[in-house]
Amino acid sequence: MQLNAENFGLQALERMQKEWGWIALRGLCAVIFGLLALALPGITLTVLVILWGSYALVDGVLAVVAGVRMREGGKPLWPLIVVGLLGIAAGVVTFLWPGVTALTLIFIIGFWAIAVGLFQIIAAVRLRKQIEGEWLHALSGLLSIVFGLAVVLRPGAGAIAFAWLIGWFAIFFGVMLIAMAFKLRSRRAA
Questions:
Q1: Could you list the residue ranges that cross the membrane (predicted)?
Q2: Coil/strand/helix, residue 15
Q3: How many CB atoms lie under 10 A from the CB of residue 102?
Q4: What confidence category does residue 2 fall into, taking pLDDT thresholds of 50, 70 and 90?
Q5: Is residue 51 part of a domain?
Q6: pLDDT digits 0-9 by tens, 95-131
Q7: For residue 147, which of 123, 125, 168, 120 has the smallest C-alpha distance?
Q8: Looking at residue 32, which CATH number applies to its domain?
Q9: Is residue 3 part of a domain?
Q10: Of 146, 154, 170, 50, which is closest to residue 106 (Cα–Cα)?
Q11: Is residue 147 included in any domain, yes or no?
C-alpha cells in the first residue's frame, strides 16, 4: 500500500503525540544543561568539555530512541536518528580527545548546532499540514542555526562568554522542545 505525503505525515504526527514525553525529556535535558552553564560561567575548559560532551551524548541517545520509536509509514524517523547519531558522535569524540583545543570544540559545537537546526526545520516543514504550532519546531531549528553560525563565525570569544552563549542557547532550545511536546500532548488528549 502506498501512502501519500499527507497520510505519511499524519502517521508521524500520531506517533509523536504518543511519544511526546521523549521530546519533553530532550527539552528538559537542554534546559538543565543551559542552567548549569549559566550558573558556572567561570568553569575551566575541561569541565565545559565534559559538560558539553555529556549533553551531546545524552541528547543524541534520546534523539535516536525517539527517532526509532516515532515511525512514519512503519519506518523510523531518519532525520531525528541522524541528529541523534551526530550528537553521539560529537559526545564520543569529545571524551576520546579531551585535550581538544577550545577552538576545535567551538567549531564542533557550531557545526553540530547548524546540522540539528536544519533537521528541525525539515521536520517542521514535513509536519506543517498536520500540526498547529509547527513554527515552534521551525523556530527551534532557526535558533539552532543562528547559534551555530554565531559560534563558527566568532570562534575567538572568551570562555565565559562562550559558556553563557551555550547556556542561553540550550535553555531556549529546550523550552521550544518542551512547548512542542506539551502541544503534542494536548492535541493527543483532544
A1: 20-39, 45-65, 77-97, 103-123, 135-153, 159-182
A2: helix
A3: 16
A4: very low
A5: yes
A6: 888 766 567 777 888 898 899 999 889 888 887 777 7
A7: 168
A8: 1.25.40
A9: no
A10: 154
A11: yes
Q: What is the pLDDT of residue 179?
A: 93
**What SS3 class is residue 154?**
coil
User: What's 71's DSSP letter?
Assistant: E
Cα 190 from Cα 178, distance rounded (Å): 18
With bands split at pLDDT 50, 70 and 90, how would you rate the model's confidence at 4?
low
Is residue 167 within 8 Å of 3, Cβ to Cβ?
no
Instruction: Report if residue 6 sits inside a domain.
Output: no
Range list of H helices, the chain: 5-18, 20-39, 45-69, 78-96, 102-127, 134-153, 159-189
- Specify the number of domains making up the chain: 1
Exposure letters 5-30 (e unless 16+ CB within 10 A, then b): eeebbbbbbbbbbebbebbbbbbbbb
Name the one residue in this structure whose C-alpha cell is 576520546. Answer: 96
The residue among 78 and 12 whose pLDDT is bigger is: 78
